[in-house]
Amino acid sequence: MSSSSPSPSFWHRPMVARRADERHRASTMLELFFDLCFVAAVAQAASAFEHELAADRIGHAVLGYAMVFFAIWWAWMNFTWFASAYDTDDVPYRLLTLVQITGALVLAAGAAEALEHEDFTVITWGYVIMRLAMVTQWLRAARSDPGRRRTCLGYAAGIFLVQIGWVVRLALPEDTGLVTFAVLVLAEIAVPALAERKTTTTWHPHHIAERYGLFTLIVLGESITAATGAVRTALDTHAALGDLAALVAGGLLTVFALWWLYFAQSAPRLLTSLRTALLWGYGHYLVFASAAAVGAGLALNVAHTAGHGHISDRTAAAVYTVPVAVFITLVWLLHHRTSVLRRAADVLHPVAVLAVLAATYAPSPILTTGVITALLITATLLLAARDTDGRTEQAH
Prior knowledge:
76% of the residues lie in helices and 0% in strands. The chain is an all-alpha fold. Helix 1 packs across helix 7 (205-236) and helix 8 packs parallel to helix 10 (313-335). It is globular, with a radius of gyration of 22 Å. The termini are far apart. The model is unreliable at 1-7 (pLDDT under 50).
């Protein structure tokens, strides 16, 4: 997609800020390709997560997954917000984006080693490749956009300094790994808030909402793919069809309901300020991570039903129901942010979350979870229809 300002050449265009109110702004083919390549990293992280869960290393699995997924999510998110403000679609922009994609593939290659063996060497270098390409993009923007030069340079300097920290971390003793990771994560998420405190970039609310929606689709799709592979493996080992049918039905109901729940919201209306945009954008870490974990949890339960793995029935159920509960909770908080429960619709999501968690102890946890999430969507639709009818009657 071309810049909002006419450009003299496809080979090089001034990286001027795009208008935040630009009409008909949609994701470009390069952005879609970028998302598609990130699927590899999400798939590797989810697969390694499932492997650790199956080995009954629950705490190690959750911590490692949280760390690996942060790298995936943060690199994706930073590119997304930058592209919303400065996508020129010229040759240098495309080449730097392809470098970031290369870094994502390197990150994907190191995801299993990082999660299973706490070896963050490969994943760190893949992450640093992506982030240094992002530094170059910000320097281009600083050169072409004098009005926001300080903001762009703030991003470039902040990102560059934190990347030095990630590389140095590889040489530090292993017992400092978790502490240094936490410090560097705080430094990473502080960069946007500090860089934009004086002058904000011109990100496009509808474009941002669409980009996040597309990545949600990708992650939910990866959950379906992971579960399908697990079912095929279980069938090859002659697992009981009745048990698998209940898992598949419950899994499909759940994923369909999570999709419906997410896209029933109107995200652009919430993105009215930097503060709300940061809260909304940062909160999607748990939305994306939990969506991918749902697929890993479903695959684990299929394998468990087929007699693989070393975990209890209750643990297998929990690694599925907890991510579902987290997803529902975060979508509710991010899109509603209800501080006072005033209407029947306001309590639907909290009640559904409690019911999903309770489903951990049900005879068929996956199917029960699917039914609960389907009922949540049904109740939401019925209440919305009642409210619409009520407003229509008042208008007349």
